[in-house]
Structure formats: C-alpha cells, structure tokens
Amino acid sequence: MFRATLAALAIIPLGGAAFADCASDADIAAFAQSYLSRTPATALGTGGDIADALCTQVKLAELLAQNLGPVVGYKAGLTSKPAQERFGVTAPVRGVLYRDMLLEDGATVASDFGAVPMLEADLLMIVGDDRIAEATTPEEVMRHVSALRPFIELPDLTLAKGEPLTGETLTAMGVGPRLGVMGPEIAVTDPEAMTQALATMAVTLTDADGTVMSEAPGAAVLGHPANALLWLMQDGVKLKAGDIVSVGSFGPLFPIAKAGGGATLHYAGLPDDPEISVRFSD
Length: 282
What we know:
Blueprint: H1 6-10, H2 25-36, H3 50-68, E1 71-77, H4 81-87, E2 93-98, E3 102-104, E4 108-110, E5 118-127, H5 138-142, E6 145-154, H6 167-172, E7 179-182, E8 186-187, H7 191-200, E9 202-207, E10 212-217, H8 227-234, E11 244-246, E12 254-255, E13 262-268, E14 275-281
Parallel strand pairs: 1-11, 3-7, 4-14
Antiparallel strand pairs: 1-2, 5-6, 5-11, 5-12, 6-7, 6-8, 9-10, 9-13, 13-14
C-alpha cells in the first residue's frame, strides 16, 4: 500500500519550482524543531508564492520523515467552501501524509497532540493502479480506486499567534499533518455505485456528547470527493498504485476543545453506513 515515497515527491512538477525561492535550511530546521516539540512555530512561506511553498514543503518533509515515517500519500486541503472561507482562499492546497500519523479507529489521543490541535471530517481513498492518471471524471477516478477508509483527521495548524495562515504558509508546512484516525477499508467493487454513494452520502461529525458539530453531503468536497484526486493530478501530483489520498474536510475545522472527550464520524449512504471514533485524553 505504501508506495508513495519522498523520492517521488521530489520530482513532482512545481510550476516553475526549479527556480522557486525555498525557505532557508535554517528556517526549515527551526520549524521542524517546533513541530516535533509541539510548540508554536514561525510561519514558512511568507512573502512567496505557491511554487516557493511547495519547494519548502519537500525539504521540510525530508526532515519530518525521519520522525514520522515515510511519506505514504497526499492531502488535498481546503476542499470545502467553509474551509476555504476560513483561510481566505479560493482554491485547494496540497500536502502530504506520513506513515506514522495514521492511527486505527477508536484510538485515544492526547488533547494536546499538537501546538494548535484541530479536528475535521475527512475520507481516505486508496489508489488501485497507475492508470488513474488517465482519469478525467469522478466516475473514471473510482475505476482506479481500490478502497475507501473513513478518516477523522487531526491536523495541527502549528503556527504561533499572529503568524499568517494563508494558502502559501499552509502549503509550506505540508497542510498541517499531525495525526488521523482511520476505519477499516471499504472495497470499491462497483465503481459506478460507489461514485453515486460518495456524491449523496451524509457525513456527520459529532462530539463526545453526541451533539452534531457538522453535517455535509459528499458533494461538499469539490462537488464530489473524487474530484480531490483529479485536482491533485492537475496540480502536478503523479498518483500511483498504493498511494493514500486524504480528500479534505467535509466541513469546517474545529479546535479539539469543541469536541470534549472525543468525536465520532458517520457516513450515511456508504456501504454499511460506517462510523469511526477517536477519544481525547488530558
């Protein structure tokens, strides 16, 4: 499953990033140290464009992979309107997933797992074969997705108070990867039926008391969750068999404190209406 590597990341076209102005090695090292110690960090990527931020992201990933395990996939971030509005952008951003950030359903996580710990309703797709590169529609994407996995992402916005949270600074940090809780694989045996189910499903996030925090249809992510993979490929990512893709948030991001002692995510309309949960400890 885990065939996406940092070497592959390094050859992704960055829209002119051969001439990109990466953050300095010293600044990237300082950010990595703040990240690993879970202390608020100074933003990377200020004053640059997305190509500069992607260049910085690759260099930062090389450092973080030493502690978080290899890169195993990609994040399409800010894929819903509420998420884009929060950060003042009009398009998604992309980042990476690390092997050791992915936890199993029911995991207990410290409530201070990051410098700025957050919570969001998400979904993982597992790329089934390299021919996904030929896909141009959600229906065609799903023919090359082997499985789905329910996913509560636990991102870390990382930055110190007053530091700019923009598309560029989010991209430079890899779009806030920290942790995520994933459910069992849901095999895609009927791509046409799964395409329809993903478009019409209801994704509901509830807090520890069962109070609804957010509810959204599958179409809340770029019109269809599979469009997140199309966007990544259009943005230069070469998806391969085994890559794991986080399609992005189906609603707003929430501070962990909003959830209380845990959260549950339910997908009404997917096979068997799957549900996963995470607990938070002090």
